[in-house]
Amino acid sequence: MHKVMIAVATLFLLASGDAGWAQQAPRQGGARAMPKWDPSTVQTVKGTVASTREGGQVEMIVIALKADTGESHLVMLGPKQVIDPALASLATATPIEVTGSKVKGPQREFILASKVKVGDKEYAVRNDQGQILGKDGQPVRAPR
After folding, report:
1. pLDDT digits over 120-136, tens only?
2. Tell me, what DSSP letter sits at residue 33?
3. What is the CATH number of domain 2-26+41-124?
4. Other Cβ atoms within 10 Å of 17 Cβ, number
């Protein structure tokens, strides 16, 4: 089941090109734009990392999260080149807490992470407007 979820997420990322940039304008030529951050859907989910993958042109880091409630969630952390390296290399079964906006993609729902807590360490991934943050904590501009 988890392999299917990751395969769907990876296909979505590859099909949408610059999928990691949540605030990017809709693409031309009929390609679907990345769903936008929605503050009304922000939630916190605790669980463990089921798997980690990267894909797409911006090497978006996506994790499958097995929630303590038994539900599974796909979580988009951010582009590998701008997020903390510790998040890009999360091991399977790592306990994790993710806060983010639950959005609907073309195939399924996923969470755009804003904060990720691993042990005693908390990582800011997006700000309150959904802009991806770099390692310095400042918003990252989408590539042109």
Report:
1. 999 999 999 999 998 88
2. P
3. 2.40.50.140
4. 18
Q: Domains of the chain: which residue ranges?
A: 2-26+41-124
Q: Say whether pTM exceeds 0.70.
A: yes
Return the residue matching tokens 């609907």. 104
Cα 67 to Cα 5: distance, rounded to the nearest angstrom:
14
CA proximity to 116, closest of 108, 125, 104: 125
Q: CA dihedral in degrees (8, 14, 107, 89; nearest 10)?
A: 50
Higher pLDDT, 97 or 19: 97
For residue 45, the tally of other CB atoms under 10 A from its CB is 20
Query: Taking Cα atoms as reference points, which of 127, 92, 96, 120 lies closest to residue 22?
Result: 127
Q: Which has the closest alpha carbon to 96: 43, 42, 46, 44?
A: 46
Assigned token pair, 31:
């390609």
The whole-number pLDDT of residue 56 equals 72
Extract the tokens encoding 131.
Answer: 């802009």
- Mean local confidence (pLDDT), 48-59: 86
